[in-house]
DNA sequence: AATTGTGAATTGATTCACAGCT
DNA sequence: AGCTGTGAATCAATTCACAATT
């Protein structure tokens, strides 16, 4: 794992966006696209798109643009997003169970293989096991799970996170409204709905 | 509205985080806090916290720190987050109805006053009206709603957004996996779950 | 002629270092 | 003595400008 560390996280985010735009182009049987056009679809400047791609190599043809298939494949490779990645979800409340039903993850390459809760209730319509949280550590170890979605209340978020990290989780998508303290080798992305709303409300007159 | 435009959006985000940490301190009857301590709780450097606050004025006492109540009140004022802000939610699918049930918004100062869907089904357990989307424009106008949560499929997101903006919506919290095109006076914050996961997967070995 | 790829310039955000209060 | 507030310095990200390539 050589250079991963010094590529801006924002560039990685944007790669995912470019990827999505490329899929749309592919559906429409477009096979070549300029940085100008792709950047417009992704809502960024064309120079930024080119700089983002430059971190990983050269994929375009001057005078012509990018081959949609090639670029799409390349970005998939870079994002390491080729094999199905197993994920667990912890905290089967309102938000947690909605995300389980949502299911849009699978086609993006993620499979929620199990969910955990302090007091798991059977949910017939979901076809994944909902297990008591005491079994979480063993499960993570046995199934070599590296990613987790955290949808527990703020009060237990840090505690649950500690357990997950101890068991080997390396990446957490955190929906709990709290700041998580994790060791350096663990990555956390937080989505805080209240903060997003608050932020918006600042900008309206 | 003079200076709003040149304060970094990231600072505004962090204000919300500070606010949450302050609430926790208040619950514990702490009445003074240093920038060092508060910054630690928020997961940032103390100089950054002080710089963030400096955009709005001087609220601390040198040698002592900040008064928790005063600072909390001040941040509320800055965020314009004092009166209950009405919000609509559009797209009552899995994610949409989960957010409606979630309800954590109210205590943060936001009230979801109505939800809209192409084919609204009555949902007894929710005590807000779920209305057909054709009534959205009138509703926005009549109730002077300025904020919307968008949870429709990507394919209709832009179309629905155009209608909302025409009716007077000024801020959108977008969960649809697509880039929205809006006029300058409208703010969009996007939460893209698949992108967040993809981003994490890049950083695990 | 068109469009990429990239050093240089610019703009923006963070951190440092310390003067100024209490 | 301790801690805030802030100009200066550093670090990071974006945009410009244009040479290189098809």
Which key features would you list for this structure?
18% strand, Arc Repressor Mutant, subunit A, DNA-binding, alpha/beta, Rossmann fold, six-stranded parallel beta sheet, homodimer, 2 domains, 44% helix, three-stranded antiparallel beta sheet, 205 residues
Q: Roughly how many Å apart are the termini of chain A? A: 47 Å
Tell me the CATH topology of the largest domain in chain A: Rossmann fold
The number of domains of chain A: 2
CATH superfamily of the largest domain in chain A: NAD(P)-binding Rossmann-like Domain
Most extensive protein-chain contact, per-chain counts: A-B, 60 and 60 residues
Topology of chain A as a string of helices (H) and strands (E)? HEHHEEHEHEEHEHEEH
- As an assembly, this protein is homodimer
Helix % of chain A is 40-55%
Shape verdict of chain A: globular
CATH class of the largest domain in chain A: Alpha Beta
Backbone structural class of chain A: alpha/beta
Mean pLDDT of chain A: 93
Number of strands of chain A: 9
Describe the largest sheet of chain A. Answer: 6 strands, parallel
Q: What percentage of amino acids of chain A are in beta strands?
A: 15-25%
Question: Which regions of chain A are unreliable across 5 or more consecutive residues at pLDDT < 50?
Answer: none
